[in-house]
Specification:
six-stranded antiparallel sheet; 7% strand
């Protein structure tokens, strides 16, 4: 800021001096001859060839794939953090109840100790000899013995309660450490997501409008080629499963979201990532499923592709980093990637890992 002010001041002084000299009487100046201007020769830019754009398409696919993997890691850490937070809250409630119980036991033990102290002093045989009513004394002695047994039980219960409290505290501490670890994992995944998306957006921003249009065409052609190859295998002729009632509800929910933007980590209602869409669709159908595509693949029952029906989830890529919902006739509904919206696509437009059925 200071150097800027000095520069402006210096410029102003130079202009003032120049104006004073030019306005001085008796001094004549010849009109300066303008220096010839050279028009800069534009540097020729060679538009990317078809091969170059195909390489860019593959690079973008790789970047968005890595972003999807990081998104799954982020979602998994988020889910685990939620679970651990809930467990810590539950443990805290148990600890508070245990402390209240311990206070009550201590009060009862204190009252019993005071009662024993008030009845103490003389040996039992002396108290029997001095008693005006020996039978009453013996009855009282029996009650004292019962009280002593009760006191021992009270002390044992106090010990157990204290041990339970110590264990609950250890459990809460362990859950807290896991929570912190998952918060760190979530932050790391978030950085990786932003890094991959930023790299993809930078690569796309370097393309001209016509090049972007050609790139979009290449993406469509690649998806169409993959879908055609999948259909050519005759697999669609074998798929004849009918949706269950819950499956119909899940499909309706998912297709109702068409046009809403993809957003990593989003579960609606305004935006979704791929597994956010499928998990919310099945939640709307009354059947909860895991949050991430990888956990959906791990935990839900697998079915053969030829046996799939609308509402089933198709898991894509070897690392289960993408998921879509099958809606019938060889089509899926899914949230593709950043910069895209929830849409319908061919079920075979991406490499299929397998199919899972939430309501098996």
């Amino acid at each position: 800021m200071g150097s800027g002010k000095r520069s402006l001041t210096t410029t102003a002084m130079v202009l003032a001096c120049a104006c004073a000299v030019l306005s001085a009487p008796g001094v004549a100046y010849a009109s300066p001859t303008p220096a010839p201007t050279r028009t800069p020769t534009p540097t020729p830019t060679t538009p990317p060839t078809g091969k170059d754009l195909e390489a860019i398409r593959k690079k973008l696919d790789a970047l968005y794939h890595d972003a999807a993997v990081a998104t799954d890691a982020y979602n998994a850490a988020e889910e685990q953090a939620k679970q651990q937070s809930a467990e810590i809250v539950d443990l805290a409630r148990v600890i508070v109840k245990g402390q209240d119980k311990l206070h009550e036991l201590k009060d009862r033990a204190g009252a019993a100790a005071r009662a024993q102290y008030r009845g103490g002093g003389l040996p039992p045989e002396m108290r029997l000899w001095l008693s005006d009513n020996p039978q009453q004394y013996l009855d009282g002695a029996g009650r004292v013995l019962q009280g002593e047994h009760a006191t021992k039980g009270l002390l044992a219960e106090m010990t157990r309660t204290q041990q339970d409290l110590q264990q609950y505290a250890k459990d809460a501490s362990a859950q807290w450490q896991k929570l912190e670890a998952n918060r760190q994992a979530k932050a790391t995944a978030q950085k990786e997501i932003k890094k991959q998306i930023a790299a993809a957006e930078k690569l796309e921003s370097q393309l001209e409008k016509k090049e972007k249009e050609r790139l979009a065409k290449l993406e469509e052609e690649a998806a169409y080629k993959a879908q055609t190859a999948w259909l050519s295998s005759g697999v669609l002729a074998e798929i004849s499963g009918k949706a269950s009632e819950q499956g119909k509800k899940a499909v309706k929910f998912a297709t109702d979201q068409i046009g809403k933007p993809y957003e990593w980590g989003a579960e609606g209602p305004g935006s979704y990532d791929c597994s956010g869409l499928t998990s919310q669709a099945w939640a709307a159908a009354g059947h909860g499923i895991p949050r991430t595509s990888q956990e959906q693949w791990k935990q839900l029952p697998h079915v053969d592709v030829k046996d799939m029906r609308p509402g089933d989830l198709i898991i894509y890529f070897d690392d289960a980093s993408h998921v879509a919902m099958y809606i019938g006739d060889g089509a899926i509904v899914h949230a593709p990637r950043p910069g895209r919206t929830v849409t319908i696509a061919g079920a075979g437009s991406m490499p299929i890992l397998g199919v899972v059925r939430p309501d098996a």
